[in-house]
Amino acid sequence: MYAYDIIKKKRDGECLNKEELQFLIKGYLTEEVPDYQVSAFLMASFLRGLSEEETILLTDVMLHTGQILDLTEMDDPRIDKHSTGGVGDKVSIILAPLIAAAGVTVPMISGRGLGHTGGTLDKLASIPGFRTEMSIADFRNILWETGVAMMGQTDDIAPADKKLYALRDVTATVESIPLITSSIMSKKLAEGLNGLVLDVKVGSGAFMKTMEDAEALAAALTNTGNHFGVRTVAVITDMDEPLGRTVGNSLEIRECINALKGRADKDLIEVTLTLGAWMLYLADWVEKAVDNPRTVVPRITAIDEGALSEKRAELEELIDSGKALESFMEFVERQGGNSEIVANPALLPGAAHIKQVQAVSGGYIQRVDAGKVGTASMLLGAGRQRLEDRIDHGAGIILNRKSGDTVQEGDTVAVLHYNDETNLAEASQLMEEAFEVGTEPPGSKKMIKKVIL
Ligand code: URA
Asked: Which of 5, 17, 100, 344 is 20 to 30 A from residue 150's alpha carbon, by CA?
């Protein structure tokens, strides 16, 4: 078998089989296939696409380049949530301890942020002492004791993805539905899950800019997850505007603590409770089937709206009673972090300087462009341009106004937090442009666009 022939086959729009995909991916890991040939394969796949079957085969090949956790010793259903990436998306940090407080185990292996989108691990790493890197054995122990554990991708989990993602990043092949699907699912399927809720973002701050693309990605992800027996649901949510009020690591941890104290903005709590209700719904679904361990958990084909509302109310009660916040503190401590940040957020890293951004005209805010805010935040040091860049955990942006709010010319609409002023002018300019102001109130915004089973 020759890499050249496989690339040519894909270039000409033909479907590849498992042996061919295995030859390329395993060969890339062992350095028998050079990166210029894998780059050509990635570009051919980007342009020609991969069929449903090829996407599943590629996921399978990537998954089996690493370890697959067996967590069957945990009695509870094991349900995770994953977002395709957005700006100000801090939902996992609120949701994981909240769902653990509801008695469901949440094994979460998360990524670092790249470009204008932030990563959950970078946010958590701003908590003094918090460990995001650990052995699988430690991960298991924490999970066993607290019901929730979060760590970064290790070299043992889908190592092909780590290498391929770095190559995609420099060959303009990231935004491909089948490549994103195999990348995400090869990591998630290694977590030993029973169920998975995916938050597929759509809008200017997301990989998927249109509903059509978001629906296609959601379908590819759910199809792949369900194929491997992990009951998977995708919720398409708005990412045209940053989620919540803050963008940047420490600032977002503060916002998460406020949310767990019951003080979250409407958009943030709406997305959190919707995804959380789905996680509990999946847990129930799996638990019913697990009464008989020989049963393959059936795929969900219809939604019981009443049951879903009950799950949402259960989560609200966990927040109101303080149990969710307790679960967060236990989780932070168990991962080596200082839980005193809950009472004293000033313990989180801060920024030496702030700069206010003023509205250039008055009226109603139509939209705050998530893509521009994400890039501005990255320029201030809160994100990475390249995977090897260092993060400034204290840098970021607070949004004083969001869509639907009124504004007068000269009002402060955002505050930039920074330690390094190298890119300050560019970030300020982007932030001025991010606020779109009009004379009429914008129509109401729907955070939850669609659910794909
Ligand atoms: N997140 C991933 O893990 N992989 C992708 O390809 C895109 C987003």
From this structure: 344
The string of pLDDT tens digits covering residues 251-297 is 999 999 999 999 999 999 999 999 999 999 999 998 887 666 566 77
Query: What pLDDT does 317 receive?
Result: 98
Q: Which residue type sits at 416?
A: L
Position 318: which residue type? L
* 187 a catalytic residue: yes
Supply the DSSP string of 335-404, one letter for each residue.
Answer: TT--GGGGT-GGGS---SEEEEEE-SS-EEEEEE-HHHHHHHHHHTTSS-SSTTPPP-TT-EEEES--TT
Report the alpha-carbon angle 248-319-266, nearest 5. 55
Residue 114: pLDDT band (50, 70, 90) is low
Residue 128 φ/ψ, nearest 5 degrees: -55, 125
369 is catalytic: no
Q: Is the CB of 120 under 6 A from ligand 1?
A: no
CATH topology for the 79-156+174-341 domain:
Pyrimidine Nucleoside Phosphorylase; Chain A, domain 2 (3.40.1030)
| From 45, 183, 204, 377, active-site residue | 183
Measure the CA–CA gap between 264 and 266, rounded to whole angstroms: 6
What's the pLDDT band for 359 if we cut at 50, 70, 90?
very high
Which atom of ligand 1 has the smallest separation from the CA of 179? 6
The whole-angstrom separation of Cα 58 and Cα 10 is 13
Domain with CATH 3.90.1170.30 in the chain: 350-438
Q: Is 113 in the pocket of ligand 1 (CB under 6 A)?
A: no
Fold of the 350-438 domain? Aldehyde Oxidoreductase; domain 3 (3.90.1170)
The full length of the chain comes to 453
Q: How far apart are CA 429 and CA 199, in angstroms?
A: 30
Backbone angles phi, psi at 249, to 5 degrees: -65, -65
pLDDT above 70: percentage of residues in the chain: 98
Phi/psi for 240 (5° steps) reads -90, -25
